[in-house]
Design brief:
Blueprint lengths: L12 H20 L3 E2 L5 E3 L10 H4 L2 E4 L5 E4 L4 H10 L8 E5 L2 E3 L11 E10 L4 H17 L7 E7 H10 L6 H10 L6 H10 L4 H11 L4 H8 L4 H16 L5 E3 L13 E7 L8 E5 L3 H4 L7 E7 L2 H8 L12 E5 L5 H13 L4 E3 L6 H11 L3 E5 L1 H5 L2 E6 L5 E5 L4
Parallel strand pairs: 1-5, 8-9, 13-14, 13-15
Antiparallel strand pairs: 2-4, 3-4, 5-7, 6-7, 7-12, 8-10, 10-11, 11-12, 15-16, 16-17
The structure holds histidyl-adenosine monophosphate.
């Protein structure tokens, strides 16, 4: 009982400081691009997630029956909740809808570096805009965030492709409709599962050996001109990606991007541009991932609306920042430590603390009898700026002694001037 559930985390105050620091940067990058924050419950109806294309995420669902006999689940991702919210107000919400959130998500995963059974996932999505401009705007949000935490394009790259690449290849061999998302989900597992397992799954979807090799050869491509000779210069996938890269250079973020046709993403609902950020050293799992999903609403019984977005977990990024020495050393945020010398000045110290708190300072009042030496150490350990001492002689003339802990300077300040 002394241990929490496997794959979950406790956040002690020092962990919470870092989490808030990270979330502040998530929020600023989204806010500076004009996105508004929303939230949804962590518990949803299970059937919001029961998609039938063999995705890992549905196999990892924390689903159970509630006391009323309903099948419910802890959300493994935010996108279906967001879709539900948009659908409930379809028509009433002015578009484009530009929303972000930082939900906790639950997946019964094999725990490993950067992967737990719960994580916080920054989600940034745009609904109601079908042009590739919206996808480019999302990439700009991502890069703003990376820059704000001190990362550069030497540390990370955002690998970009489009589901349309695979759609065109598969269309030419007659794999369309329902089979298309299922094949994407299998292709995404190509580097994780043995070749014959993949081949068996693909053959269930109607792909023969030759088909598999044409898919594999296109997935190996990593520049536009190769892609254009493979798919033809009139290929919609090629023009979409060409435009996306042009927009990225207008944003000044092209050095962060690379074309990588092997990026397919493991979720069934993507339809257009898809992307994932990876550390250049290749030591970590994906830092984030997303893409366009224009047909999600019809799978939930609604009318489709174009949408694009990404999810960005809080775990891999902290691993990467640690590797790069970019995790900040954050103080507690307490500004003043107030202490009295002697029991009879305890009430005075309380009124001093109250006065400072009313003025907006964050004040840690020493609650029991401590020696001066302890107070110094405590103030130093918590990163306070000032030690405010209520001492007999000074107090009798209406003053407190304030020590600036940076400069070491001491001065007497009248209570009324605090
Ligand atoms: P996803 O690729 O499943 O996409 O997850 C997005 C990101 O969430 C991952 O790249 C990773 O940073 C983080 N993540 C996922 N699972 C875990 C885990 N078990 N532990 C730690 N971090 C994890 C989605 O969920 C899509 N709904 C994203 C999206 C939003 N697409 C469009 N809008």
């Amino acid at each position: 009982m002394a241990q929490g559930v496997r794959g979950t985390r406790d956040f002690y105050p020092e962990d919470m400081r870092l989490r808030n620091w990270l979330f502040d940067r998530f929020r600023s990058a989204a806010r500076e691009h004009g996105f508004e924050e929303y939230d949804a419950p962590v518990l949803e109806h299970e059937d919001l997630y029961t998609r039938k294309q063999g995705e890992e995420i549905t196999q990892q669902l924390y689903g159970f029956e509630d006391k009323g006999g309903r099948r419910v689940a802890l959300r493994p991702e935010m996108t279906p909740s967001l879709a539900r919210m948009v659908m409930a107000r379809a028509g009433a919400l002015p578009t484009p809808i530009k929303w972000f959130s930082i939900p906790q998500c639950w997946r019964y995963e094999r725990t490993q570096r950067g992967r737990g059974r719960e994580h916080y996932q920054w989600n940034v999505d745009i609904w109601g805009a079908d042009g590739v401009e919206a996808d480019a705007e999302l990439l700009s949000v991502l890069v703003s965030f990376f820059r704000s935490v001190g990362l550069t394009s030497d540390d990370l790259s955002i690998r970009v492709s489009s589901r349309k690449v695979l759609e065109e290849v598969l269309g030419s061999i007659g794999v369309t409709g329902e089979a298309f998302p299922a094949v994407c989900v299998i292709v995404d597992k190509m580097d994780k599962l043995p070749q014959d397992a993949i081949a068996a799954q693909l053959s269930e979807q109607g792909l023969g050996e030759d088909d598999i090799s044409s898919v594999t050869s296109v997935l190996g491509l990593s520049d536009i001109s190769q892609l254009s000779s493979a798919l033809g210069s009139d290929s919609p996938a090629v023009s979409e990606l060409t435009e996306l890269f042009q927009l990225a250079s207008a944003y000044g973020i092209e050095e962060w991007l690379s074309l990588d046709a092997s990026v397919v993403r493991g979720l069934a609902y993507y339809t257009g541009p898809v992307f994932e950020a990876h550390d250049r050293a290749g030591e970590l799992r994906a830092v984030c991932g997303g893409g366009r999903y224009d047909r999600l609403l019809s799978t939930l019984g609604g009318k489709d609306m174009p949408a694009t977005g990404f999810g960005f977990g809080d775990m891999v990024i902290m691993e990467l920042l640690a590797d790069k020495g970019l995790v900040p050393d954050l103080p507690s945020g307490n500004e003043d430590v107030v202490m009295s010398l002697g029991e009879d000045l305890r009430h005075a110290a309380m009124s001093v603390a109250s006065k400072l708190r009313e003025s907006g300072r964050s004040v840690d009042l020493v609650l029991d009898d401590k020696r001066m030496k302890w107070a110094f150490k405590h103030a130093d350990r918590t990163g306070a700026q000032r030690l405010v001492m209520v001492m007999p002689d000074e107090w009798s003339s209406g003053n407190v002694r304030i020590k600036d802990l940076d400069t070491g300077e001491e001065s007497d300040v009248a209570f009324d001037d605090l």
